[in-house]
Amino acid sequence: MSEDERPEVASEFKRSRHGGVTMKLDAAEARILRHVLTETLELLGPSESPDDDPLAAALGIGTTTAAPEDTALARLFPNGYTDDPEASADFRRYTEPGLREAKRTAARTALATLGEGGERRLLTEDEALAWLGTLNDMRLVLGDRLGISDDWEGMVESITDGDPRLTLFWVYDRLTYLQDMLVRSLT
After folding, report:
1. Is residue 2 in a domain?
2. Structural domain tally of the chain?
3. Is residue 1 part of a domain?
4. Mean pLDDT across the chain
5. Confidence band for 18, pLDDT divided at 50, 70 and 90
6. What DSSP assignment string belongs to the chain?
7. pLDDT tens digit string along 48-80?
8. Does the pTM of the predicted model rise above 0.85?
9. Fewer C-beta neighbours within 10 Å, C or N terminus of the chain?
């Protein structure tokens, strides 16, 4: 996508005088966010079935102890202990189900409050925090898929107009911008 083909966006998050945060997104940006949010939910997968281990489900612990093979999921659910595989497995078993469900809930909240774009929407403090968490998750996943490194500027400079990743870099940059704007509105 060339610069003149990119949609003009008048996106904003602003602290509301009445509490919460107002959000206004361009319709094209809302469609892109809906798509990325939906893909993020698909990546997170369904909740573990209580039939897998009823005792584990009753206690809110998982049965999975291995790190995800998908590198993007491994970014969202990193090992708790890099130098102790057994402690890391226990940590994952006790924390990943709740963390995964919290990420699903945040993404669903963002989808439910997204709207079609063009209108100003009032987010409660909790909804704004859900947006903040899911924007970060979407950035982590997309950053992993794109191989984003500390040399962001060098990577961007190496992208040419014909590069198929150009649109994804634009989306990553927009997610970064929205996250920054939301952090500023919350502080």
Report:
1. no
2. 1
3. no
4. 85
5. confident
6. --GGGSPP---EEEE-TTSSEEEE--HHHHHHHHHHHHHHHHHH-PPPPTTT-HHHHHHT--S--SPPSSHHHHHHS--S-TT-HHHHHHHHHHHHHHHHHHHHHHHHHHHHHH-SSSSEEEEPHHHHHHHHHHHHHHHHHHHHHHT--S-HHHHHHH--TT-TTHHHHHHHHHHHHHHHHHHHHH-
7. 655 566 666 655 666 667 778 899 999 999 888
8. no
9. C
